[in-house]
Fold these 2 entries.
Entry 1:
Amino acid sequence: MSMFSLAGKTALVTGANTGIGQAIAVGLAQAGATVVCAGRRSCDETVAMIEKDGGTASSVLVDFADPMAGQGLFDTPVDILINNAGIIRRNDAVDFTEGDWDAVMDVNLKALFFTTQAFAKAVLARGGQGRVVNIASLLSFQGGIRVPSYTASKHGVAGLTKLLANEWAAKGINVNAVAPGYIETNNTEALRADADRNAAILDRIPAGRWGRAEDIAGAAVYLCTPASAYVHGAILNVDGGWLAR
Ligand SMILES: NC(=O)c1ccc[n+]([C@@H]2O[C@H](COP(=O)([O-])OP(=O)(O)OC[C@H]3O[C@@H](n4cnc5c(N)ncnc54)[C@H](OP(=O)(O)O)[C@@H]3O)[C@@H](O)[C@H]2O)c1
C-alpha cells in the first residue's frame, strides 16, 4: 500500500461546506478516505464533489457555537479528525467586545479541544490509531492586528497541538497542525476588499500570490497518511513563504 494512501480510513472534517475544509475533504477522499463532512449548514456541495470524483462521503450538521456540540460525532468509528471550523471577528482592541471574544474562543479553541477529546476517547476505547490535524494560522505565531480573540485562539491551537501530541503520541494518536498563510476564502474577504491591505499583504508573500484552499489540502492529507507516522506536534506552515521572510 502507498505511504500516501488513506484507503480504509474514515475522516471527519469540520467546516467542510466551504473554503479550506471543503478542499481538505476533497483531498482526503482522493487519497481514498471515506469522508464525513461536518458543518453548521449543509455540506451537500462537498459531498457531491467527492461523489463526482468516485469517492464516498456523508454529511452531518453540527454548530460549534455550542462548544460541546461535537460530543456525538464519534459514535461510529472515525480514524482522522480535521479541526478546521473557525471564525474571525475584527475590531480595534480598545473596542473589542466580550461577545466577539467569547464567540471566537468558543468555536476556534473550546470546541476544538472538547471535540478532539471526544475523538481521542473513542479511539483509545477501541484500541485504535488516530490522526488529528488542527488548522492553525500565521496568527499562531504573529500578533496580527484588530483580531485579538482570533490571535489568542490560534496561539491556543498551536499550544494544544503540542500538548495533545505529548500526551497521545505513545498511544497511537498523531496530533499535528497546518498553519495556512493568506488564503482566498470567506475568512479573508474583508482583507482582499481593502485595496491597501491587499497590496501590503501581496507585497510580503514570497510566492507573489494569495494561497488557494487547495494549497492547504496536500499538507493536511500528508499529516493523515502513513508517510507522516513519526510526525507529532508539528505545525506545518503553508504560507507561500510568509514566515520565512
Ligand atoms: N483563509 C485564510 O487565510 C486562513 C488563514 C489561516 C487560518 N485559516 C483557518 O482555516 C479554517 C477554515 O477557514 P476558511 O479560510 O476556509 O474560512 P471559511 O470559508 O469562513 O470557513 C470556515 C468554516 O468554519 C465553519 N464554521 C464557522 N463557525 C462554525 C460553527 N459555529 N459551527 C460549525 N462550523 C462553523 C464555517 O461554516 P459557515 O460556512 O457556515 O460559516 C466554514 O465551513 C479556519 O479555522 C480559519 O481560521 C484561514
Entry 2:
Amino acid sequence: MTPPPGSLLTAENLRKAYGPTTALDGAEFSIHPGEVVAVMGPSGSGKSTLLHCLAGIVTPDSGSITYDGRELSAMSDAQRSALRRSEFGFVFQFGQLVPELTCVENVALPLRLNGTSRKEAERAALSWMARLEVDDLAKKRPGEVSGGQGQRVAVARSLVSGPRVLFADEPTGALDSLNGERVMELFTEAARSANAAVVLVTHEARVAAYSDREIVVRDGRSRDMERLV
Ligand SMILES: Nc1ncnc2c1ncn2[C@@H]1O[C@H](COP(=O)(O)OP(=O)(O)OP(=O)(O)O)[C@@H](O)[C@H]1O
Ligand SMILES: [Mg+2]
C-alpha cells in the first residue's frame, strides 16, 4: 500500500510482540497535517503500542512508518530523538509535569532543552498558557494545581516548541467529564490553530467526538471507521 496522498505520518502493516503477547498484528495508520485522529479500542488492544511506534519511542518488529517522507526505521536513535524533540509533542494521562519546577518553567522546558534563552522560552510559555487559560498559575508548582489545570499546563508544554504532530495518550483519562471536556475543547482548538496533527488515544466516545476521524484498534489490528461505512 502506498501512503495516502498528503499524509504526514503513515504506518503500514505494523507488528510488535512482547514475548508471547502480540500487541500489534498488522496495524495501519495515517494522518494529515492539522488533522485530529482518535485511536479507540478496548483495553489491551494495542492503542498505546501503536502511539509509541508512531512516535519512534518503540521499534516495531516489522512494518513501515513514514514521517514526512522519511522512514523511521532508517534513522539512527539520535536522529529519532532529534525528531521527537523538534517535530513531536506529547501529552499523557497524568500530565507528567516536573514537580520541582513551576508551571511556567515546565511549559518552557522543551524550548530550554533546545537552547532557547530563559526569557524567550518563558515568554512563549506564558502565551501558550494564556491560550489554555492557565497563565495565572505560572508561578505555582504542579502539586498546587488541580488535575484539569495540570493537564492544560501539560497541553501548553506539548505545543510550545511548535510541533507538527501531537501524541496524546488518554489526556483526560484522570479527569471528571466536565474538566475533560474543557481540556479537550482548549486542546483541539490550540492544536488546530497551530496546524498540528493530533494522534489522540482514548476509549471514551465523548473525547473521540473532538476528532475529525476515528480509527478503531482491536487485537492489534486497526480499522478506519470511514472505510467501514
Ligand atoms: N512493555 C510491555 N511489555 C510486555 N507487554 C506489553 C508491553 N506493552 C504492552 N504490552 C501488552 O501488549 C498489549 C497491548 O498493550 P497496549 O498498552 O498497547 O494496550 P492499550 O490498548 O493501550 O490498552 P489500555 O487501554 O489499557 O491503555 C497488551 O496485551 C499489553 O499487556
Ligand atoms: Mg494504553
